Amino acid sequence: MIQRIQTLYLFVSFILMLMLFFFPLAELLSPEGQIYAFRFDGLYYKEPATLSVRTIPPIILLAVITALNFITIFLYKRRITQMRLSFLNILLMVGYVGLIYFYVSDFSNRLDAKNVSYQIFDAFPFVSAIFTYLAIRAIGKDEALIRSIDRIR
After folding, report:
1. CB neighbours of residue 80 within 10 Å
2. What is the model's pLDDT at position 111?
3. What value does the CA radius of gyration of the chain take, rounded to a whole number of Å?
4. At what angle do helices 124-152 and 5-19 cross, to 10 degrees?
5. What is the pLDDT, as a whole number, of residue 1?
6. Which letter, b or e, does each residue of 50-59 get, where b requires 16 or more Cβ atoms within 10 Å of its Cβ?
């Protein structure tokens, strides 16, 4: 049901996580002056845009988070399941941020990078988690309303 506010929250969360597939998450400057870009799928050498190192766990985790977000939107008839999957998705988003920080710091140590600059897109999982939390609250209100109506009958 598109007219429910929680569906809108979940859709915004889905779009934010989907955008992480297209933008770099961090840039690293090596001592030689080479710029590397860290994306969801690995470390890229920026000038000819060639893949230097592929990272599989962030690919899998981001795909699971995005798919779970999309699936949760269509579970509006099963509100309790929708709430549980949304809570799991929040945990996965926080884990994704930790995983990204781990990989960026690991590549920074490997390259002996002079400068690491994180992009604004690193905040998207946090913002997405906030929207998912707001969706959980709205789903809970719907569930409470349904139960109160059932009690009146």
Report:
1. 11
2. 85
3. 19
4. 160
5. 55
6. eeebebeebe
Q: Can you tell me the distance from the alpha carbon of 150 to that of 143, in angstroms, rounded to the nearest whole number?
A: 11
Neighbours of 140 (CB within 10 A): 14
- The two structure tokens encoding residue 83: 């709430």
Q: How far apart are CA 148 and CA 142, in angstroms?
A: 10
Q: Which domains does the chain have, with CATH numbers?
A: 5-145 (1.20.140.150)
The pLDDT of residue 153: 58
Q: Is residue 140 classed as helix, strand or coil in its secondary structure?
A: helix
Find out whether 25 and 40 touch, Cβ atoms under 8 Å: yes
CA distance 72 to 8: 12
Q: Give the whole-angstrom CA distance, residue 91 versus residue 59.
A: 17
* Residue ranges for the chain with pLDDT beneath 70: 1-3, 47-48, 151-153
Rounded to an integer, what is the distance from CA 150 to the centroid of its chain?
A: 36
